[in-house]
Amino acid sequence: DRGYDLRQYQVVPDEPDIIRDILISWADTEQLDVIVTTGATSLTARDIMPEATTSVLDRLIPGMAEAMRIEGMKYTPMAMLSRGVAGIRGTSLLLNLPGSPKAVRENLGAVLDVLPHAIEMIQNERHGHPSTS
């Protein structure tokens, strides 16, 4: 309902090499504006999404990850255990979201309003700041 088109969707195992290969392909070859992952952001040994994602990033965007965790903590203190990251590879914005559909909606809701500006800045389409009014 925000005007974004789903271009790719894939369910993958919690295997770092597979995740990295897909993220690199979607960012470098497909040149997707935003790449969203869900799941594998918690504290178990299999929760390797933040490490797999960070290994392919050019730069981190800590404020976006912090905003998503803060939003989640409005609903449950367990949100502070999410280790999801946000960052840039090339001209793509990558976001790690938790695995539950409810948490995905909450976390994505925290950053949706800034996505257009973030995408424009990453892709060097403009350098000004959006109006706050």
Description of the molecule:
It is a single chain. With 133 residues, this protein is α+β, with helices and mostly antiparallel strands. Helices cover 38% and strands 13% of the residues. The chain has helices at 16-29, 49-54, 62-73, 101-111, 115-122, and strands spanning 34-38, 59-60, 86-89, 92-97. It has a 4-stranded mixed sheet with strand order 1-4-3-2. Helix 3 (62-73) packs across helix 4 (101-111). The mean pLDDT is 93.
Question: Span from first to last CA?
Answer: 23 Å
From the alpha carbons, calculate the radius of gyration and give it in angstroms.
Answer: 14 Å
**Strand content of the residues, in percent?**
5-15%
Helical percent range? 25-40%
Sequence of secondary-structure elements: HEHEHEEHH
Q: What's the story with the biggest beta sheet? A: 4 strands, mixed
Shape: globular
Could you list the spans in which at least 5 consecutive residues all have pLDDT below 50? none
| Total strand segments | 4
Helical/strand content category: alpha+beta
Enumerate how many helices there are, as a single number.
Answer: 5
Average pLDDT for all residues? 93
Strand order within the widest sheet?
1-4-3-2
